[in-house]
Amino acid sequence: MNLLSIGASYRTADVAVLERLVIPESSVPDLLQRLVAQPYVGEAVVVSTCNRVEVYAAVSGFHGGLGDICNVLAEHSGIPATELAGHLYVHYGEAAVRHSFRVSSGLDSMVVGEAQILGQLRDAYHSATEVDSAGRLLHELMQQTLRVGKRAHAETGIDKAGQSVVTAALDVAADHLGGDLTGRPALIIGAGAMGSLSVATLTRNGVGPLRITNRSHDRADRLAEAYGATAIPFDQLDAVLREVDIVVCATASTVPVLTRERLERVGKDLIVLDLAVPRDVAPDAAGLPGLTVIDIDSLANSRRSNPAAAETAAVEQIVAGEVDNFLGWMRGSEIAPTVAALRTRAEDVVSAEMRKLMSRRPEFTEEQRADVSRTLHRVVQQLLHSPTVRVRQLAAEPGGDQYAALLRELFDLDVPLATQADAVPEIGGKA
């Protein structure tokens, strides 16, 4: 098995494509099961956020795995596979490991260094664990991915400004409002993770008074209480829209919450930060007088709040070292079946010789037979110990796969091996 990551993000797709690709939390288990049911896919983890949808998989062949995953994503999104391919980036083997570590470190985020991706990766790994779609390879990859992300944030200043998609959106909003958002009344629609982040960020930036609404009023009430905001029943949304200057939308709704008709009734200037995918603001509302919508496409074009080059370089150095470590683990784990097969072959030889000896020497007592058997096994194990320890060490180094192949050839070992890389074309540069 080898690693394959396939995805689309703000780098390769606009929000109209991403909202068709996005995978609601309730649909993730079914999609994972569909993925691992494919012929070439043995393990799968799905990451779906407001600006990326990615599949990490353990596959038995590059082309077969690529086709299987693309077909599942095409069926899910309703986008023909030939059209979808133009929006996807693909990473295989070492490149997949590097991409995973860069994502968790915040290097691939729209707002470089944002820490929210760590929680999103953790949730994705948890979902895969619950449906048992992550096996040994992806368990190791995801655990190391989370560790590398934490290390990058702890050891460098890449996230020292506390930047996030919300802060980037507020920067754009500030440009439209003369640069100062202090004291601007605002409404947050949605009380989930992004809604909570929005309330915390707006509070920290002096925006307010804040009002929060959510279809589940209890969640809005709890969030409002934590930040000294006011929870508003969802059926009062129209009235509140006429009383605020800024609206942050961060719901999981599959249909627009702010329709053109609803926004037409506002009757005043309004800035809406639409951080939801699918979008909370109806696309046909664009161009309404006094309405400014800042969505994922707007943020991708603005590219705000990137950290200094020295900080990103420090994280890239961490990632490079961790990729080497992980590849060493992969190479070492790949020789394990060969070593196990060699030990099994040795045990079989000992057992066969013992049967021959006992047939020639029937006068041996049970105690004598046991003594001879233990001696033969000890001799074989001692002979194999140093070579097998050393070959594991050598296998963890670059080019280590040759040692497993050499053992199989020398001892004529029959080791079931997963199909490795087909000829892999140059793919993945877009990401």
TrEMBL record:
<feature type="domain" description="Tetrapyrrole biosynthesis glutamyl-tRNA reductase dimerisation">
    <location>
        <begin position="315"/>
        <end position="413"/>
    </location>
</feature>
<feature type="domain" description="Quinate/shikimate 5-dehydrogenase/glutamyl-tRNA reductase">
    <location>
        <begin position="175"/>
        <end position="300"/>
    </location>
</feature>
<dbReference type="GO" id="GO:0019353">
    <property type="term" value="P:protoporphyrinogen IX biosynthetic process from glutamate"/>
</dbReference>
<dbReference type="InterPro" id="IPR000343">
    <property type="entry name" value="4pyrrol_synth_GluRdtase"/>
</dbReference>
<keyword id="KW-0521">NADP</keyword>
<feature type="binding site">
    <location>
        <begin position="114"/>
        <end position="116"/>
    </location>
    <ligand>
        <name>substrate</name>
    </ligand>
</feature>
<comment type="pathway">
    <text>Porphyrin-containing compound metabolism; protoporphyrin-IX biosynthesis; 5-aminolevulinate from L-glutamyl-tRNA(Glu): step 1/2.</text>
</comment>
<keyword id="KW-0560">Oxidoreductase</keyword>
<dbReference type="GO" id="GO:0050661">
    <property type="term" value="F:NADP binding"/>
</dbReference>
<feature type="binding site">
    <location>
        <position position="120"/>
    </location>
    <ligand>
        <name>substrate</name>
    </ligand>
</feature>
<dbReference type="GO" id="GO:0008883">
    <property type="term" value="F:glutamyl-tRNA reductase activity"/>
</dbReference>
<feature type="active site" description="Nucleophile">
    <location>
        <position position="50"/>
    </location>
</feature>
<dbReference type="Pfam" id="PF00745">
    <property type="entry name" value="GlutR_dimer"/>
</dbReference>
<comment type="similarity">
    <text>Belongs to the glutamyl-tRNA reductase family.</text>
</comment>
<comment type="subunit">
    <text>Homodimer.</text>
</comment>
<feature type="domain" description="Glutamyl-tRNA reductase N-terminal">
    <location>
        <begin position="6"/>
        <end position="156"/>
    </location>
</feature>
<dbReference type="InterPro" id="IPR036453">
    <property type="entry name" value="GluRdtase_dimer_dom_sf"/>
</dbReference>
<dbReference type="InterPro" id="IPR006151">
    <property type="entry name" value="Shikm_DH/Glu-tRNA_Rdtase"/>
</dbReference>
<keyword id="KW-0627">Porphyrin biosynthesis</keyword>
<protein>
    <recommendedName>
        <fullName>Glutamyl-tRNA reductase</fullName>
        <ecNumber>1.2.1.70</ecNumber>
    </recommendedName>
</protein>
<feature type="binding site">
    <location>
        <begin position="49"/>
        <end position="52"/>
    </location>
    <ligand>
        <name>substrate</name>
    </ligand>
</feature>
<comment type="function">
    <text>Catalyzes the NADPH-dependent reduction of glutamyl-tRNA(Glu) to glutamate 1-semialdehyde (GSA).</text>
</comment>
<feature type="binding site">
    <location>
        <begin position="190"/>
        <end position="195"/>
    </location>
    <ligand>
        <name>NADP(+)</name>
    </ligand>
</feature>
<dbReference type="InterPro" id="IPR015895">
    <property type="entry name" value="4pyrrol_synth_GluRdtase_N"/>
</dbReference>
<dbReference type="Pfam" id="PF01488">
    <property type="entry name" value="Shikimate_DH"/>
</dbReference>
<dbReference type="InterPro" id="IPR015896">
    <property type="entry name" value="4pyrrol_synth_GluRdtase_dimer"/>
</dbReference>
<dbReference type="InterPro" id="IPR036343">
    <property type="entry name" value="GluRdtase_N_sf"/>
</dbReference>
<dbReference type="Pfam" id="PF05201">
    <property type="entry name" value="GlutR_N"/>
</dbReference>
<feature type="binding site">
    <location>
        <position position="109"/>
    </location>
    <ligand>
        <name>substrate</name>
    </ligand>
</feature>
<dbReference type="InterPro" id="IPR036291">
    <property type="entry name" value="NAD(P)-bd_dom_sf"/>
</dbReference>
<feature type="site" description="Important for activity">
    <location>
        <position position="99"/>
    </location>
</feature>
